[in-house]
Structures are given as C-alpha cells and as structure tokens.
C-alpha cells in the first residue's frame, strides 16, 4: 500500500515535468527554490490528509445511516456514474469555494492558507504545498456532503482522479488556452491570477474547478492573456517545512501585526455582499461624516503637496503603499503615507505593516465636519503616538493639518522589501498613479519600460540590443513578455502584437515618441 504517494509522485512527475517544459508559461528551472519543501509536503501531507479523510468519511457515513433516509441514499447511488460524478464536482466545488473564501477573509485562517500562497515559483508541485489544517478543513467542508448523501464508491473514485489531475493542472507552469471553456472549467491562467501577488488579484478566483461560481458571487477576475508579474505573499513565511507548519500556531512577534493587512480588508462577505464590520467601542465609532461620492484618491493631491513642501519626492501606489516619499541622502529617507476617508483600525494596521520598510509612517484621512471625530479622540492619538505614527487631517477645503508628528521608534526593518520599494520609486518615471486607487492596473516602472519598448517598435521589429539604450532590461522584457505585447518573428527579433499596439492607445505618453527617436538615433551611432 503506497500510503505516502510515492507512485503518484512518479506518475505525476513523468506527465507534468515534460508538459511544463514544452508549454511553459514562463522560464523556470525544474530544481527550483523550495522544491525539497514541496516534496516533503507531498509525502507527509498525503498520509495525514488520507487518514483525516478516512476518519471523516467513517463519521459522515455513520451519521448518514441515522439521519438520512435510506431511500435518498439509494436514489443517489443508483444514478449513472457519470451523473454522480458531475453532481459531486458541483457540490464539492461549492464547498471548496466558501471554505477557500473563509481562509482568505478570516485572519486566523489566513495564516494557515498563507503557507500555500507563499509559493513564489508556481508549478504542479505547488498543488501539494498546503498546511495540513488548511487541506483537512477544506476537504471536510467539501466532501462531507458527498459522503452524507451516499454517492457510490465508483463515482467518488472517478471524482478523486479528476480532481487530482485538474488541481495539478491549474497549478502547473503551462500556457494552454481554454477558449470558451474558460468560463466553465478552471484553467491554469484562472488560478494563476489567484496566486498573483498584485493588488488586482487579491481575493479573486476562489473556485477550484468551476469559475462560474466566482462569476455568480462577484469574485471573478478577468485577466485575458496577461501574466502575473510575481507570486507569493508579503507575510514573513519561514522557508523550512517545520517552520511553515508551526508558523500559524505561533503568536505574532509584534504587538499589533496584520501580515495580510496590505490586501485583506476588514470586510466580511455574506452571500456575495460585502458588509463592513464595525469594531465595537467609542474609539472606533463612526465620525458621522458625509463621504458619499468621495474616494481615497481625493486625498492624494493635498497630501502630496504637503510632503513636497518638506523637500520630499512623492509618488503614488508603489509596492502596495498609497504614497511613498523619498528625500535625498545615503541611504535615502523613506516616508510612507497611507490614505483613508476616515481614521479607523484598518488604517492603523496598514501603518504597522509599513513600519518595517520606512523611516516614518504618516496616516492621513478626512477630518470630521465639526472637528469632533476620531482625530480628536485622545485614546486614538495615544495609540498612534505609542506606535510612532504621524497623523495628517485633510479638511473639506483640502488643507492639510498635522495632528501628530511621527516618532522614530526604530522598529525591526525588512531590508529586502525596503530595497524593492526604493528601487521602484527611483526607477519609475514621473508620478503616473494617484495614491489610494486599487481598481486599475498600476503604472509600475516595469510597465513603463515595456511601454517604452513598445513605442520604439511601432515602426517595425527590433532586437533587444537596439532597445538597451532605452532600458537595460529590454532583453528580459521581450523574452518574458509578461503583458503579451511582443512576439518573436525571428531569432533575436521581436515585433509588436495587437495587444501591444492597444497598450499604446490605452496609455498614451508624451515620452513614447521621444523614446522611439532616442532608440533610432542610438542604433545609428
């Protein structure tokens, strides 16, 4: 008896390793980072989950014998096997959808599920990279109704094979167009945009096999042929197997820590309708401020002017932060400002998350009409003072008032994340994105470079070396083709696709023509 799944591993490897090599979505090594940990998950989790399912099935069958009339179980098991399999897929995936959504929305559960999202190089083995608690709870919710209703063993066995194969496929590093079936059957592209560590992908595409469930409940992410720029999470996930198993069970290392605060809001969802959870107590009570028709981007311009008056270079939407401001120096002074329409707990938690990558944190929000809102609450100010945060109030006339100056508490720094933030700020040309927005694609430095390459290729195909004068990463941009804007027409020669030409229409920039002429001039020198 192969209780650890060695045979399954060998069979799946023989199928998916060459499959990923022939139809790779992006270049990726077979012996990638984290491979050994994924193999441990496959071997040990497989055994643990099998035992849990056996216990769960025995309990469900025992309860069904008492609670469910025999006529119902006989009617269910008496159906054709193909019909039973179709019903099982639907019932199980409804359970997977809501269990999956709960693991994203409930902070205590998210720490278990963050282990799965911690994968930075996504391939077929990533399907096994789940915390045992995550895997067991999800399977309990999705499979208990199956055992309870009395589906036949043959139909359950067929479903198990289909589910395993499909789960490996959607996690695999392959590019296979599903055409019109993409609305019915989950594709690798569909699930890839669930794992993407990009704001537009957060809390989307929860279904395991049936994408129309996300369409029904308002969580479907239409991505077209775009490829995610990166996978993983910002949570401090350990790199070892036992570290990851223990990570959700350990207390937070900081007094107030929300490892998913960057993209997990304080909203609960009931039957697809978002409902704001209002924390109890006067400290977090409503300001009774009329905010109808306003959004967070309305705060960006006045706060930007304030920070620029302090000799900062200010840009919006960098690394998930509403505002990042730099002042020249070695190293540069990094200030992050988060924007909300009201001072609330979520704003404070975002500040806690940002404190590890900057020198100062400012929290900015609209002031109440009479000045008696939360910004005047001594307890709220004391909380921010203890955390070292500065507070900015924006009046109805867009005047910025300093409510509290930041205090440098020297929190533990995340040097790698800070370096990425500074690098993105310095490489991004101009300030193309207003901070506080989340619905549109962000104009990153990488996207700007890709657009510059596209603009230089309007007149005809180019080679990567022809574009190096414009951007040093031209070769990487053309080869990886993250946005689907380029196509190789010959060895080392690339041309624009229709999507690339459409991108120049969508993002017309004055620098496009200048960049193209600069490349043409450089190529003639």
Description:
The protein is of the alpha+beta class and 525 residues long. 45% of the residues lie in helices and 10% in strands. It contains 19 helices and 10 strands. It has helices at 6-22, 35-67, 70-77, 81-105, 107-117, 132-149, 153-171, 188-195, 212-216, 241-246, 300-308, 345-354, 378-387, 415-427, 445-456, 464-467, 474-480, 498-506, 511-524, and strands at 267-270, 273-276, 313-318, 321-327, 333-340, 360-366, 390-394, 400-404, 486-490, 493-496. It has a 6-stranded mixed sheet with strand order 3-4-5-6-7-8, with helices on both faces. Strands 1-2 form a two-stranded antiparallel ribbon. A two-stranded antiparallel ribbon has the order 9-10. α2 packs parallel to α6 and α4 (81-105) packs across α7 (153-171). The protein starts with 5 loop residues before the first helix and ends with a helix. Residues 253-288 have low confidence and may be disordered.
């Amino acid at each position: 008896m192969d209780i650890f799944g060695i045979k399954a591993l060998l069979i799946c490897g023989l199928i998916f390793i060459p499959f990923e090599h022939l139809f790779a979505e992006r270049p990726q090594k077979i012996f990638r980072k984290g491979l050994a940990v994924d193999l441990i998950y496959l071997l040990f989790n497989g055994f643990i989950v099998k035992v849990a399912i056996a216990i769960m099935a025995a309990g469900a069958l025992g309860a069904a014998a008492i609670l469910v009339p025999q006529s119902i179980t006989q009617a269910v098991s008496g159906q054709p096997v193909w019909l039973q399999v179709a019903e099982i897929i639907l019932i199980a995936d409804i359970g997977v959808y809501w269990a999956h959504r709960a693991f994203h929305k409930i902070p205590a559960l998210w720490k278990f599920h963050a282990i799965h999202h911690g994968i930075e190089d996504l391939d077929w083995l990533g399907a096994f990279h789940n915390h045992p608690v995550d895997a067991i709870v999800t399977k309990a919710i999705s499979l208990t109704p199956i055992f309870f209703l009395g589906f036949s063993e043959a139909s359950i066995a067929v479903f198990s094979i289909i589910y395993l194969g499909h789960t490996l496929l959607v996690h695999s590093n392959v590019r296979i167009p599903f055409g019109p079936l993409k609305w019915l059957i989950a594709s690798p592209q569909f699930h890839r945009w669930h794992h993407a560590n990009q704001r537009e992908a957060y809390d989307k595409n929860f279904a395991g096999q049936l994408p129309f469930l996300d369409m029904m409940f308002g969580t479907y992410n239409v991505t077209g042929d775009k490829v995610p720029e990166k996978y993983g999470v910002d949570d401090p996930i350990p790199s070892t197997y036992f570290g990851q198993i223990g990570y959700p069970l350990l207390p937070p290392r900081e007094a107030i820590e929300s490892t998913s605060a960057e993209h997990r809001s304080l909203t609960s969802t009931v039957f697809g309708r978002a409902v704001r959870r209002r924390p109890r107590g006067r400290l977090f009570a409503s300001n009774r401020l009329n905010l109808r028709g306003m959004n967070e981007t309305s705060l960006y311009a006045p706060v930007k002017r304030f920070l620029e008056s302090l000799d900062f270079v200010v840009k919006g939407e960098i690394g998930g932060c509403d505002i990042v401001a730099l002042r020249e120096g070695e190293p540069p002074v990094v200030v992050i400002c988060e924007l909300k329409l009201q001072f609330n707990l979520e704003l404070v938690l975002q500040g806690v998350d940002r404190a590890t990558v900057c020198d100062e944190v400012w929290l900015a929000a609209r002031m109440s009409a009479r000045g008696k809102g939360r910004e005047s609450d001594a307890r709220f100010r004391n909380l921010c003072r203890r955390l070292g945060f500065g507070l900015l109030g924006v009046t109805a006339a867009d005047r910025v008032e300093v409510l509290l100056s930041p205090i440098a508490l020297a929190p533990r720094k995340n040097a790698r994340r800070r370096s990425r933030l500074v690098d993105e700020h310095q490489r991004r040309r101009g300030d193309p994105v207003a901070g506080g927005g989340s619905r549109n694609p962000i104009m990153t430095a990488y996207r700007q470079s890709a657009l510059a390459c596209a603009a230089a290729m309007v007149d005809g195909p180019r080679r990567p070396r022809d574009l190096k004068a414009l951007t040093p990463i031209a070769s990487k941009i053309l080869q990886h083709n993250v946005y689907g804007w380029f196509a190789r027409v010959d060895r080392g020669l690339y041309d624009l696709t229709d999507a690339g030409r459409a991108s120049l229409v969508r993002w017309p920039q004055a620098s496009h023509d200048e960049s193209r002429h600069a490349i043409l001039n450089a190529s003639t020198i």
